Amino acid sequence: MTLAPDNQESGVPLWGFVAGAAVLIAAAFAAVWVMFPAPDTRHDLVSPSGAARIELGELCGDAGCDRVAILDAGGVRTGCPLALTGNQPLFHEVTAAWSADESRVVLSYVAQDGGTGSLTIERTDCVITQ
User: Fold this and answer.
1) How many CB atoms lie within 10 A of CB 77?
2) CB atoms within 10 A of CB 104
């Protein structure tokens, strides 16, 4: 029996093909993992009722720090503006004091160098969607 040209065996066993594909996919995931730096600090602060939470993160470089606060309330995620400057991480340690109706949270933070500060976030100010 002669096989037609489009039915020729490739000479690569199935296990070799599967192993090669797995290595290629693992290498792609590793490249993406290494390409994006991890944030310098990251905190997830949940309200007492559990209905809202704020995620804080910052990534600092020579040009300064990018700081973000994301409010997650009822499955809707919005950004909260942060007016903090500097090129050193501020959120080494963070505690949250939520108001009784959870419409406001006061964040008290300690920087890695020992400096302290506080920041008030109103839920109504968290309207950044992109």
Assistant:
1) 13
2) 15
